[in-house]
Design brief:
about 120 residues, mainly alpha
């Protein structure tokens, strides 16, 4: 269970960072992270990036919520749902935008999900 908790926390923290970057630092840190996007597009896409960041915050909130559920079965189910959402989003991003997204987003969620399922 400890491994599941640690991996899930890392995924939640990662998505809080993505929220910060996409909502509040899109035109500064975003340029360093999304190098394939031409620099002149960061200003016009600021609203779209903020919307994406908000969704990443919801994913993180769901993962954090799983720590506060007293029933172990429900906690695991909620955790697996949100980790699955992160995995699918990461897989889609890897297929449509950059393969690196698989390793930074989908794979950590997959590992956390497997660790969670091992301890149900």
């Amino acid at each position: 269970m400890m491994l599941s908790n640690i991996l899930t926390a890392l995924v939640a923290i990662e998505h809080l960072y993505i929220l910060y970057m996409e909502m509040f630092a899109w035109e500064t840190r975003g340029k360093g992270f999304f190098k394939s996007l031409p620099e002149h597009l960061f200003g016009p896409t600021k609203g779209m990036a903020a919307n994406q960041g908000l969704y990443n915050g919801f994913l993180s909130a769901g993962l954090v919520w799983s720590y506060f559920i007293n029933d172990d079965t429900w906690s695991s189910n909620v955790r697996l749902f949100f980790l699955s959402c992160v995995f699918v989003a990461g897989l889609y991003g890897a297929l449509t935008a950059s393969r690196k997204i698989f390793f930074f987003q989908a794979l950590p969620a997959l590992l956390a999900g497997v660790a969670t399922m091992l301890f149900i």
